[in-house]
Amino acid sequence: MNQYIVTAYDFTDPEALPRRMSVRPHHLDAAVELRKTGNYVLGGAILNDEGKMIGSVMILQFETEEGLEAWKQSEPYITQGIWESVDVKPFRVANVG
Are the C-beta atoms of residues 81 and 73 closer than 8 Å to each other? Predict the structure, then answer.
């Protein structure tokens, strides 16, 4: 499978964090589904100095580019306007002892 690191930053308007929190359950449900299909490797929130969520990092894997594109079209943080910027780069998880 092709692996990808996704680095995404939230919008910074005053309603960004409340909007994120309202969509978060849907984002987490989607991550559970990705795990079930073997597409989710790991993920978590990027925090600011105050410990508030301001973005996300995910490592995902897909057999095809079409799978990656389908994820982008269905990811709640993308479709619901949470992430202002999304950077996806090829990645390889290191297999260490």
Answer: no
